[in-house]
Amino acid sequence: MSLRGKWPFVVLLVCIVLFGGADVKAAVTVEPIAGLDDHFIKGADISMLPEIEENGGRYYADGEQIDPLVLLQEKGVNAVRIRIWVDPYDENGNPYGGGTVDGQRAVDLAKRAHSHGFQLLLDFHYSDFWTDPGKQFKPKSWEHYSFEELKDAIYHHTSNVLGQLKDAGIIPEMVQVGNEINAGMLWPDGKSWGEGTVNLIGSPHC
After folding, report:
1. CA 58: distance to chain centroid?
2. Are 3 and 79 a contacting pair, CB within 8 Å?
3. Cis omega (within 30 of 0) on the bond before 188?
4. Could you give the CA distance from residue 82 to residue 65 in angstroms, rounded to a whole number?
5. How far apart are CA 152 and CA 38, in angstroms?
6. Which pairs from 186-189 meet CB under 8 Å and 24+ separation?
7. Containing H/E element for 174?
8. Residue 60, pLDDT above cutoff 60
9. Average pLDDT, stretch 132-148?
10. pTM for the whole thing?
11. Which residues contact 62 (CB under 8 A, 6 or more apart)?
12. With CB atoms counted within 10 Å of each terminal CB, which end of the chain scores lower, N or C?
């Protein structure tokens, strides 16, 4: 499938979220964009969806409760992104939040999205929480790894998630190796686009 160079994710704000039964009313309507090429990716990040639902979040359309993935489809979304963290909990087992998307939650959410026919983008952060150009912290359990051990950890973490999906008959259309890695990844070993990062993401281990 040719994407003709079109990779942007258009985040569509199409949901009304009501928490804990609060009497909140809102009107948000975003109609599908007409005339787009069939290969144009119209996506949304759904990583926080399970955590929102676990905390009482519900989605409505025209006053009726609806599965948010159904609502996204109705509004023209055809792809979803799911970020993946290694161990998004502190030393006491408390979740960091932001979706608390470890490998198992990512697999479960990917299966749910796949059942609705969405294309999948899996975004591996290789950290316990958000990474970006200003921070690329190693997962707690990887902090004292040697460089070779880091490469093995990347391989096993990635293959575990992708292997579970493959066993379920799901092959993601896109896999993102690292998140916003302008300044490298897994600092300090992979900081900058020198030998460190290139060897981490370009070795046969990946």
Report:
1. 20
2. no
3. yes
4. 23
5. 39
6. 186/126, 186/127, 186/136, 186/138, 186/142, 186/150, 187/135, 187/136, 187/137, 187/138, 189/138, 189/147, 189/150
7. strand 174-177
8. yes
9. 95
10. 0.81
11. none
12. N
Closest by CA position to 59, among listed 12, 116, 14, 16:
16
| Residue 167 scores a pLDDT above 70 | yes
pLDDT tens-place string over residues 171-196: 999 999 999 998 899 999 998 766 66
- DSSP for 51-95 reads HHHHTT-EEEETTEE--HHHHHHHTT--EEEEEE-S--B-TTS-B
134, 188, 189, 203 from 195: Cα distances, Å: 19, 12, 9, 11
Q: Which residues pair with 64 in a beta bridge?
A: 61
Q: What percent of the chain has pLDDT over 90?
A: 68
Using the predicted structure, report yes or no on whether residue 19 has a pLDDT greater than 50: no
**What does the block give as tokens for 66?**
């609806």
Provide the CA 34 distance to its chain's centre, in angstroms: 27
Distance CA 76, CA 186 (A): 36
Q: Is the pLDDT of residue 4 over 60?
A: no
Task: Give tens-digit pLDDT for 196-205.
Answer: 677 787 654 5
Distances from the Cα of 42 to the Cα of 2, 31, 35, 67, angstroms: 15, 12, 13, 18
Mean confidence (pLDDT) of the chain:
84
